[in-house]
Write a structure and sequence with these properties.
- By secondary structure, the protein is mostly beta strands.
- The chain has no helices and ten strands.
- It has a six-stranded mixed sheet, with no helix packed on it. A four-stranded antiparallel sheet has the order 1-3-8-7, with no helix packed on it.
- The radius of gyration is 13 Å and the shape is globular.
Length: about 110
């Protein structure tokens, strides 16, 4: 099973930027589609963006034009560049494969102040 370690979160002001990283524990990562997710307090975890093993990307409407997903297969790492952050982006951010691996990482907290 693949394990994930997310990092790069923090506290930023509205309009700020962060770059999240997700390192996978095994090289099977390179053949998997990857997704970034987030979970805000009191809400369900939601999918934000996906990248296939061929680097085809897709975004949900709330992240289009602001977030960019990418991957470095040599490093078993996925990234999420987040620009123009808004208070409603405050959440814990996770990565996982598609289909989902059963073990989620600890996530990385993103807090956007108004």
């Amino acid at each position: 099973q693949v394990q994930f370690v997310e990092s790069g979160g923090g506290l930023v002001q509205t309009g700020g930027s962060l770059r999240l990283s997700c390192i996978a524990s095994t090289s099977i990562f390179v053949v998997k589609n990857i997704g970034w997710y987030r979970q805000a307090p009191g809400k369900q975890r939601e999918l934000l963006a996906t990248i296939t093993r061929d680097r085809v990307v897709n975004y949900v409407d709330s992240t289009k034009g602001r977030f960019t997903i990418s991957r470095d297969n040599a490093k078993n790492t996925a990234y999420l560049q987040m620009n123009n952050l808004k208070p409603e982006d405050t959440a814990v951010y996770y990565c996982n494969t598609l289909p989902l691996e059963p073990n989620w990482g600890q996530g990385t907290q993103v807090t956007v102040s108004s």
